[in-house]
Design brief:
This protein is α+β, with helices and mostly antiparallel strands and about 260 residues long. It has two domains: about 140 residues, no CATH class; about 110 residues. About 50% of the residues lie in helices and about 15% in strands. It contains eleven helices and six strands. A six-stranded mixed β-sheet has the order 2-1-6-5-4-3, sandwiched between helices. Helix 7 runs antiparallel to helix 11 and helix 9 packs antiparallel against helix 10. The longest helix has 26 residues. It is globular.
Length: about 260
Amino acid sequence: MDATSDLLALPRSVLLALWAQDVGAGAGPLQQALAAVQGDDEPHAVRVGEDGTPGEDGLAGLVAAWASGPREVAAVLPAPGDLAGVPAAVSTLAVDAGECVLVHSGTGSFAAVPVVEEFGSALEPGHLVTWEVRAVPEWRTRLLGSLGSLADAERELRLALISATEALASLDVARWRPDAAEAIAALRSEVGPGWPVPHTLDGRRLRVLASAARLRAIVTLATADDGGAVNLWQADQRSTALREVDRAARRAMSAATATVAAGPV
């Protein structure tokens, strides 16, 4: 996977949310979901509750349990100072991870946070992933109030794109980091990211996910250093603008995963 593909990779929680709401009964669909979420990782483990009890059958058991009946699912992508609807019981874990999956089913409401441990080398990296699962209070109303609708998210993304364009022009990326400028230009391409998402995912949600992923990747590249900033105030103004772009992109990505009654349409 090249650097641009790495930047565009969907968070594990987004993939799990998309597959958890789509997968039905049977070994075939379950294995397809596991392959998509785990990717090149080692098989994902699960720990349940505050006592850290190992989840039976790892991620397969967790997804199978969710797939046993009707469910409402969303991924949330919090950042320090922006919990984005994350339940308090997992807020510290979720902010550290930068992501979380929320599920409501006939057995209750749950949050699952991926804790990732890296191993190997830069040339051959590996990841050990353990999903920390907690029972949480009913989260749907709070999340919907935080996210708004998918249409709201699309409007915010359009405004975020304008902000990102203005911030990048101010940063003059091409002058101080031509490599980053080339990567940003590539990220603006309309070529599909080729993600392992369910084939049933509708085009509108996929477009929102793609736009949000590209904006987040652009922010990552543009905030690697302060670029041509003349002073600290200028650097802070630019980074603040790009943080708002990232916030809009994170919330749009979350809205595109949410299947909550009376939620995003």
